[in-house]
Amino acid sequence: MSKRYHCEFNDCMCIAFLKDKNKLCNDCKHGEVWHSRTNGPPTDAYLQFYSVRETTRQPTYTNYNDISNNFCLSVDDLPA
Predict the structure, then answer these.
(1) Where are the domains of the chain?
(2) What is the pTM of this model?
């Protein structure tokens, strides 16, 4: 049995042929002949979230309860 991939019927979004008893796809209900024998290029929907870069570090946030000590209360209190 040959493996079938994405459906080529109009704008069908089915990505793989899943056979049922009637030789139709369980997902899109199109016949086996509409499903490609070769795996096509990745779709834009897949590529928009795919990146070859490594993921960045996750930021850590700190909660400062009293931040009033970090700021000057007036312009005259600024260091010279």
Answers:
(1) 1-39
(2) 0.44
